[in-house]
């Protein structure tokens, strides 16, 4: 009987998703533009409160790159109610906070914690005070500049950060600071209180914000509390709008990087391309996700074909295709590992891999039977199951949901399953032709220093160096 009840609940849950609703979710918009999402789930007596802003690296300029990360730190340093960081942390302890954090990404800034559900009103009040009334004390700013500067220097001493930022600087060459959360040290060191206040006025406003309250809650109570605590928060009459999309690269390029952690005798080969931005071309993002899942099959035709064509590749299951959904800077990358030695040259292997991938992509676009009809059904079910599983834990769900609110829209999230189910060969072929075939690419090779000594940069390959990996080093 219990299994039957669970099955019935799952079927109702899925049916609600197809109707573009989220079971247990209530959505309200305050007069000042603040969006409030309340997810009711009484399984455990806990509530997660998360507040998210649409800003971060994508709203940076060269003069402000890294300041959203610094601002995130400063929010924990005190406000009109909890005047010091000690007071701030003591208040969280008194709320019984189980887990908490803040984060700055390329497309949003977010803060959250999980508390006992009988503390929900106090938890909402806590974040209201934090985000609306930060003190921005001059002496605290001086201290936090040192903390963030040391973090940045740590990133810059991390080879993986050197590599990823060098890739980003090439792929998004015109506005690379919109992909760099940490930014240069000098911007942090020169930051002023006036700059932070201007950021607050522009971005930390109710019409650029969503509050997510999930767990053991009464939505009517939560709405009353939020209206009382945040209803008088003044909106920004001139919201920020992204003016220009990242253009395609001017042409193909190649780079090689010495990665100390790379397995001896192995080279990691990847091809990067600009992918669809989710608001500009949502249909292409659905096709990209379905294709990604199709190609992730260990026995996929794509993987086996590439492996058969390129000597030295490690194994078919170590060939991948990825698409990263973003509002401002979607990207595609296709990669593999190669075993170097016994006549296998990393640069020749990379070129063969690139040619084989582009050839197979063309075949895939041209052949309507490249994937069997049952393959589409299986892969779409996998994506649907992943979405359903993500909704089982309220705190995990709103973490994902807040990402989609910031980077796409909640309508995109709620319509995802229905739209994904519409993807067929024609949609995939359109995506491939629009974003991969004939489009400029960046080829990269990562190898250990010892392997690089034996195979120094070949003609056409630029070595990525720590002293020139970042956009701001070339200003």
Provide structural commentary.
There is one protein chain. The protein has helices at residues 2-18, 67-74, 85-95, 120-132, 138-156, 159-171, 185-189, 193-203, 219-230, 282-295, 301-309, 346-366, 373-390, 394-407, 410-414, 416-421, 425-435, 449-454, and strands at 25-29, 35-40, 46-53, 99-104, 109-116, 209-215, 253-258, 266-274, 319-324, 331-339, 442-447, 462-463. With 475 residues, the chain is an alpha+beta fold. The chain has two domains: 19-230, 2-Layer Sandwich (Cytochrome Bc1 Complex, Chain A, domain 1), CATH 3.30.830.10; 253-474, Cytochrome Bc1 Complex, Chain A, domain 1, CATH 3.30.830. Helix content is 45%, strand content 16%. Helix 2 crosses helix 5 (138-156), helix 4 runs parallel beside helix 9 (219-230) and helix 12 (346-366) crosses helix 17. Residues 1-20 have low confidence and may be disordered. Strands 1-2-6-3-5-4 form a six-stranded mixed sheet, sandwiched between helices. Strands 9-10-8-11-7-12 form a six-stranded mixed sheet, with helices on both faces.
């Amino acid at each position: 009987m219990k299994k039957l009840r669970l099955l019935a609940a799952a079927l109702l849950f899925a049916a609600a998703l197809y109707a573009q609703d989220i079971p247990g979710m209530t959505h309200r918009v305050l007069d000042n533009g603040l969006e409030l999402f309340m997810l009711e789930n009484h399984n455990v007596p806990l509530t997660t409160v998360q507040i998210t802003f649409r800003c971060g690296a994508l709203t940076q300029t060269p003069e402000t790159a890294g300041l959203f990360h610094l601002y995130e730190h400063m929010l924990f340093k005190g406000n009109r109610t909890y005047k010091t960081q000690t007071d701030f942390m003591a208040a969280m302890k008194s709320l019984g906070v189980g887990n908490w954090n803040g984060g700055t990404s390329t497309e949003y800034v977010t803060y959250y914690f999980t508390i006992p559900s009988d503390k929900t009103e106090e938890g909402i009040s806590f974040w209201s005070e934090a985000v609306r009334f930060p003190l921005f004390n001059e002496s605290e700013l001086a201290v936090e500049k040192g903390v963030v500067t040391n973090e940045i220097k740590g990133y810059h001493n991390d080879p993986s950060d050197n590599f990823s930022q060098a890739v980003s600087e090439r792929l998004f060459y015109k506005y690379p600071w919109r992909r760099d959360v940490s930014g240069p040290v000098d911007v942090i060191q020169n930051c002023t209180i006036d700059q932070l206040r201007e950021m607050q006025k522009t971005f930390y406003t109710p019409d650029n914000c969503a509050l997510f309250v999930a767990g053991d809650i009464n939505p009517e109570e939560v709405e009353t509390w939020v209206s009382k605590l945040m209803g008088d928060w003044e909106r920004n009459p001139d919201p920020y709008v992204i003016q220009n999309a990242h253009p395609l690269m001017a042409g193909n390029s190649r780079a090689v990087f010495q990665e100390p952690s790379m397995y001896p005798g192995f080279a990691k080969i990847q091809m990067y391309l600009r992918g669809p931005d989710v608001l500009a071309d949502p249909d292409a993002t659905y096709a990209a996700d379905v294709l990604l899942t199709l190609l992730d099959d260990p026995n996929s035709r794509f993987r086996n074909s590439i492996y058969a064509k390129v000597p030295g590749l490690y194994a078919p299951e170590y060939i991948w295709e990825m698409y990263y959904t973003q509002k401002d800077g979607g990207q595609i990358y296709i990669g593999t590992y190669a075993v170097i030695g016994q006549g296998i040259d990393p640069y020749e292997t990379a070129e063969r891999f690139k040619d084989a991938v582009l050839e197979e992509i063309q075949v895939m676009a041209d052949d309507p039977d490249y994937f069997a009809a049952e393959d589409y059904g299986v892969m779409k079910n996998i994506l649907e199951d992943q979405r359903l599983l993500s909704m089982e834990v309220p705190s995990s769900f709103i973490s994902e949901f807040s990402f989609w609110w910031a980077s796409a829209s909640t309508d995109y999230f709620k319509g995802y399953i229905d739209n994904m189910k519409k993807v067929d060969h024609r949609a995939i072929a359109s995506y491939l032709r629009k974003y991969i075939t004939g489009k400029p690419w960046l080829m990269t090779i990562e190898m250990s220093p010892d392997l690089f000594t034996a195979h120094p940069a070949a003609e056409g390959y630029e070595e990525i160096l720590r002293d020139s990996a970042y956009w701001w080093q070339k200003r």
